[in-house]
Amino acid sequence: MTIPEKTPTITDPSEAFLNPRQTIDYRSEREDCLERLLAFGKTPDKAEGYAVVTVDTRSRRMDQFYRWVWQQEGGYTANVTHEHADAWMRELAQADYSSAHKSNCQKSIQMLFNWTAHERGGSTRDPDISFTDSDASSPRDYLTRDERSKIRNAALEYGSTPAYDNVTPAERGRWKQHLAQRFEKPKSQITPDDWKRANNWKVPSLV
Questions:
Q1: Number of folded domains in the chain?
Q2: 119 and 168: one domain?
Q3: What's the Rg (C-alpha) of the chain?
Q4: How does pLDDT run across 92-111, given as a tens digit for each residue?
C-alpha cells in the first residue's frame, strides 16, 4: 500500500540530524516499515493492515524514538534494540507527559518491533514498563516486568491448598479445619471437591 503524502517518511527534525547518505538509508527503512504496516501490519496472515490514521500517528512517535536513540548513541543507526526501547520507556515514565502520550509512545514502539519480528526475524518485545491509556488527571502508575512476575506468582499461590493425596492424615485434618472456616461449613462435610474448589483458577485468571 502506498504511503499517504501526509505521512512523512522523514520528519524535518530527523532530516536535520542526518547527512545525505544517512537520509537515504533511513528513508528506505521507514518506507519499508510503513508500507508493510499499512498492508499487513495488523494481521499479517490475513493481509490486514493498520488504518492510515493509526500508522500516521504512530509513525511520528517511531521517528521520535529513532532520534532519541541517535542522541544516546552519538550518531545515526537504524538498528534500534529492545534495550533502547526499555530505556526510552523508563525515561518517559519519569517525564512530565500525560499517561495517554506515554501509552501511545509504547504502542508505537510495539508496532515497530512487531514489524521487525515478522519481517526481519527479530524477537517480539515484552516491555519492562506498561502504561495505562488514562487521561492526564489520573495518577501515573506502571508495573515493571519483575513486579508483574511477582503478582502472577502470588496469584498462583493465593488461597491454594496442597493436593488432597499429598498430605498426612494429621495435615489433612488441619487443612479440613481451614477449609471448613473458609467455606463456612462443618469440618465433617469437607470433601475432596472442596479442595478442588479452593484451588480453582478464578484469581489467577483475573490477574
A1: 2
A2: no
A3: 25
A4: 988 888 888 899 999 999 98
